[in-house]
Amino acid sequence: MIAKRTMAALFAIAVVTTPAGAEPTAKPDITLKTKAAEISVSVDAAIKADPALAANCLAEGKRWADKHRGEAEEAHRDDPKIFPKDGYGYERNYVTASVVGDRYVSLLRKDYEYSGGAHPNSYTDTILWDRSVKKRISIRPFFAETADNGPTMNAMVKAIVAALKEEKKKRDIEDSPEMDWYKGIEPSLLKLGPVSLAPSTEAGKSSGLTFNYSPYAVGSYAEGAYRAFVPWQTLKPYLSAEGAAIFRGERPASDKDAD
User: Fold this and answer.
1) Is residue 98 within 8 Å of residue 197, measured between CB atoms?
2) Going along the chain, which residue ranges are E strands?
3) How far apart are CA 22 and CA 17, in angstroms?
4) How far, in Å, are 109, 164, 175, 190, 255 from residue 241 at the CA level?
5) Nearest CA among 215, 219, 121 for reference residue 173
6) How far is CA 35 from CA 71, 83, 89, 162, in A?
7) How far apart are the first and last CA of the chain?
8) What are residue 121's phi and psi, to 5 degrees?
């Protein structure tokens, strides 16, 4: 059964990933187990220390778990003969990536799933939480303008693609001329990719933006996940006053090591 080996561990065996932040290691906060599926949701200790943020994540996690339980049970009813003997497995982890100015909390929402097939799948999304208003926000307030196809968005796309190509070069991966892995990165705030505030060598600040791409997003499955770091110096011409106040310092070596 999936319980004998977590979905995260199964995925790590299947492909080398590039995680950031500390994975929760305690007992899951939500566990659902039926004949059709085994599902867990965990939040890390830093999230639990913020009651409003923890409640927000766990409410979302419960909805996600209920949805997948229903889908698994329906699939099992529809065709039990081809349904995996050990059932489907789903795991969601909420992990703190950075805390900036004791106000902005960047989270990675890391999903692992196995529903038959050759290998498990992994998906990473991000959450930016503003403690002052106790809700999720976007990075929009940190920039003077964020119009689709505007100067800020085009500068970000250029920087992201350059960072991804550099990382592929480090991995000795050559892009196929027949496949444009970057076409999905568009000059629009919602189409750049899951973004988090990168930690900094200067306390309370962020060193830039990190874009987190799941396997298949910007490369083949075998390439694993990618993180594209864009330093604040590149973003400086486009920052709002609010953005200029939070960005400073350099990217810590420990964060670079996670690429």
Assistant:
1) yes
2) 30-33, 37-43, 88-100, 104-114, 121-130, 135-137, 195-198, 208-213, 226-231
3) 14
4) 29, 29, 39, 22, 26
5) 219
6) 13, 11, 11, 46
7) 31
8) -125, 155
pLDDT digits (tens, 9 = 90+) for 196-215: 999 999 999 999 999 999 99
Q: Provide the residue type at 36 as one letter.
A: A
pLDDT in tens, 148-201: 999 999 999 999 999 999 999 999 999 878 789 999 999 999 999 999 999 999
For residue 64, the number of C-alpha atoms closer than 13 Å in the C-beta half-sphere is 23
For residues 239 and 141, give the distance between their C-alpha atoms in angstroms, rounded to a whole number: 9
Q: Looking at residue 19, what is its pLDDT?
A: 41
> Please, which residues bridge with residue 110 across strands?
93, 124
239 to 34, 146, 154: CA distances (angstroms):
49, 10, 14
* pLDDT value of residue 20: 53
- The CB density around residue 178, as the number of other CB atoms within 10 Å, is 5
